[in-house]
Amino acid sequence: MHDKIIVLDFGSQYTQLIARRVREAGVYSEIRPCTVGAEEIDALGPSGLILSGGPCSVYDEEGPALDPALLDLERPDGAPVPLLGICYGLQAMAHQFGGAVERADRREFGRAQLQLPPAGAEKSRLFDDVPSGSTVWMSHSDHLTDLPDGYEVIARTDNAPVAAVRDTDAPSYGVQFHPEVVHTDYGRQILENFAHEICGCSGDWTPASFVEEQTAAIRKRVGDRHVILGLSGGVDSSVAAALLQRALGEQLHCIFVNNGLLRKGEWAQVQETFRGHFEMDLRTADATDRFLERLDGVTDPEEKRTIVGNTFVEVFEEQTEAIAADLGHRPTYLAQGTLYPDLIESVSFKGPSVTIKTHHNVGGLPEELDFDLIEPFRELFKDEVREIGRLLDVPDQIVGRHPFPGPGLAIRILGRITRERLSLLREADAIFIEELRANDLYDEVWQAFAVLLPVQAVGVMGDERTYENVCALRAVTSVDGMTADWAHLPHDFLGHVSNRIVNEVPGINRMVYDVSSKPPATIEWE
What we know:
Blueprint: E1 4-9, H1 15-24, E2 28-33, H2 38-43, E3 48-51, E4 83-86, H3 88-96, E5 100-113, E6 135-146, E7 151-155, E8 164-167, E9 172-175, H4 187-198, H5 207-222, E10 227-230, H6 235-248, E11 252-258, H7 266-277, E12 281-286, H8 288-295, H9 301-327, E13 333-335, H10 340-346, E14 372-374, H11 382-391, H12 396-399, H13 419-438, E15 447-461, E16 464-477, E17 485-486, H14 491-504, E18 508-513
Parallel strand pairs: 1-2, 1-3, 3-4, 4-9, 10-11, 10-13, 11-12, 13-14, 16-18
Antiparallel strand pairs: 5-6, 7-8, 8-9, 15-16, 16-17
């Protein structure tokens, strides 16, 4: 059993970042909705509770409520469970204890300088090894105006006289800023201080321990039954396949579907890797014609996702029936490489977080599909899965691969999807990735790809007028994909890539580079 910190989700898009930072401190964390009852949380045996931020005001009628009993939980030894409220979480906690929260005269969004007690004054353990004057990230409209009885201010900023507080008699803390985001200089240190110094967690949770525990759990759950897995060749499904093979061996059956929306050479590469390196039972189905016929004329991105998802399920079911015929019975379990970001961006998974877009492997399986789900990574982040992949000897070219969406190139072609436009995009994308690798830039960015736009532009080639397609290049830097900045690639490099694509891909005569960050944009264009 590991120490565990529970993160209560009040609807912040960054709730999962809190859990991630706690895990980086070697402490296992789980997210639960803020509406969950104290009895359920108490049964989890938490070493600490963190209350996330959120978009609401504590005075909103539809704002998420906090069970007061959550603030009075005790450990088995009778000591109170430590609390840390972040932004809205601080306000909800303070409001519940009798403090006052009001609309601020000036909304604070962005960087601020943390002011800690001067030298000689008592400093909270929450800010051990955190220097005064360091940068924190603010994002709030409400603020505390009156503290609950027994609370004191332990940090402020120029615009926020109450930037952090603590209960002088209990291990309860709150910060108005967001320590979970990379913009807060010492955010990781603050969360480590809470986990280790205040909650007393030992920090014994690691990806290696996860592998051992999941392997044993999968074996126990599956027994002598069989599991099927939809393999895409991407990081998530590939590492899931490696973990399941370690646990189950020949009881695992992988299915790889060619939807006609794969990258250049991917259909052959995936088969070679998983039949050769892993020696798995890999079933393949080339359903290109079926997918492209159904996508013909479709331009709405959500409709594209739905068509790709539904058609995939149909083909997947056909392959499953073939496996069942070989085994003499239908496999019991379906495995997916679902990750935290997939879940948090698709549905209100664990709390009232806002839906951004539908993900291919989340919520798309019809109820009549008679499987029990195995999703070993549903509580993990991409970098954690990569580390697990390395522990399982997954080849570097797969573990280090950039994320690729389930609907594939369907959502990287804006507008209509045709074989001709797919061919243009594949060639352009392959050149971009080839040059990133050749210039040692591939591993410097989180994700990079080409996008074919639904517009044409006038150009001049060989003294002749052209009227051809516009292609965009997108590259971002990120830690986990939840926030991202556009990659500041060298201008000479971008110019070289642009020149190659325009000269080598007939049908494209203009290149543009996307300089949007997330937020406000998303990483993918659709």
